[in-house]
């Protein structure tokens, strides 16, 4: 598929980058990690699997959302100015190009490395006679009883095929006398079967795809029937929905949510991936049944794999432990170096503690919760939960607190995408234990991360507070970079208490002292901070903005950043994922630079820095600059006031801007270049350097914001073809 020049030109002329096209560029940066020959083969396979998981979600949610417009004839205009039908063409063109890159990388670069690392992905036909006998025995005893052929003909309705599940479409010859010459049956591969059967031969592990084993034993399911073709495919369904929640949240809302979750099984098909050369008659039947065309169909080479997420079985295999990413031992927080020697409750009565995960462990937060659950002085615990770890220590502590007679309030966000069922189950466990559980707030998704512990200490009551950018998930805290503040500061405690009253009741406070919240007024307050920098620049005063977030999509915020750039404010944006702002465009954004960091850890922290004529204002929290964050979510950003902690945050930004190992620089045309050390400059990898930060490091802080050199417009090329020094001079 080749895009018409008219569409290419329209995309290039827009002052905004398409959210979806920008996201695809992000996934290409993730794929770039799988291209990196300096990484181990296991790490490269891990990143390839991540790109597949990302792409599955993209089709489920973003392409699914597009089809909500297409199927109901609703108008939709993308940031690039394209209408829904034009944009559909663009999306499928770009995703097919990406899929082609994935599979070429796997076939041409990764598979040839398997042998030297003592493993292979081996087809059934390459097994020895003895190995085939063992595999066949496993098929007959374990796999065969789990398989269910589902016929589709005049007597059988079309079966419901599950999204993102491998399926065989088997075409058989009809019995003599039948009106139809061919018949079609489907066999879904159960999700609880391993992706690969493992056979060890001469100290080499051979991974045999389970679908290949089934294909070569398909005759057991079609006895005395002529099989004309066996076709492996996978579908992706629309999983995007908007919950219209009623006021009767205890009854109607939970039932509505359960019904919506079930629609993911029957949503319209938006993508069909087929392996090899599929039967054309079967394809015709599927296209008619699902109302799709050739754009929706992705053809995958037989020598590759359908669904790279299954590679995680190899990545997590104990045999390759030494090839997996080495995770250093976390270091103590700068403001809490005696982490193993003091009670966290005592420490927080003396000072604030900033946690920078994964460089600092989440242990102090878990310790605080667990001690609070047992401490007789603790009266109440309030917490917002978005995602939890499996066998969560957070849940265990809350259950223990309730068991010990403490008041426990938990706002469980049961609309956390793809974690709905787990959150629903955990919330009900807590509710049965006597906790006061709130299942979300009206039509808003609760994304803020807050913890409040109320403790009676003699004649006074102390409130212990944790505010964070990350989830209360001890598993992801080991590879997500996040920031959290632990404090007993009464100003924070007052703000958080007020915010919990908003969440659980009908309170509407007039003002927070250190907190900015959404959906109330976060966008407006950030706009005012941006405008203040623009006004300083117009007056000839020092000015500057540095923002580190996951996504930038809110058009109002982008317009304000454009206006600040035109006023002369130097602006540096560190945006991991999608970025709808165009940097370096003449007359619009000459003073804006955008970079993205993608590497060993998932960048998840959000930081907002405003120079404020030397009296810098620094905020951290849960919110990105997205419409959904400002209008449809409960979010919070909180100002850092402690001098040591503020220096730590500024140093984090400085290190991010200095990184030349994991960084990509965004160009005016929406493409990205990998940043490399310049000349004799040494490598600076933040995912290693943050383990070495000391208080002495904070003495040498310099966030001087120089105005960037404007690049000339560059033709769009792939990430690996970009030269490193196109634009990065101004970032150093």
UniProtKB/TrEMBL annotation:
Modification note: An intermediate of this reaction is the autophosphorylated ppk in which a phosphate is covalently linked to a histidine residue through a N-P bond.
CDD domains: PLDc_PaPPK1_C2_like
EC number: 2.7.4.1
Catalytic activities: [phosphate](n) + ATP = [phosphate](n+1) + ADP
Residue positions binding ATP: 54, 480, 576, 604
Keywords: ATP-binding, Kinase, Magnesium, Metal-binding, Nucleotide-binding, Phosphoprotein, Transferase
Keyword Transferase annotated: yes
PANTHER family: POLYPHOSPHATE KINASE
Protein name as it appears in the record: Polyphosphate kinase
Organism encoding this protein: Fulvivirga kasyanovii
Biological classification of the source: Bacteria, Pseudomonadati, Bacteroidota, Cytophagia, Cytophagales
Encoding gene (name): ppk1
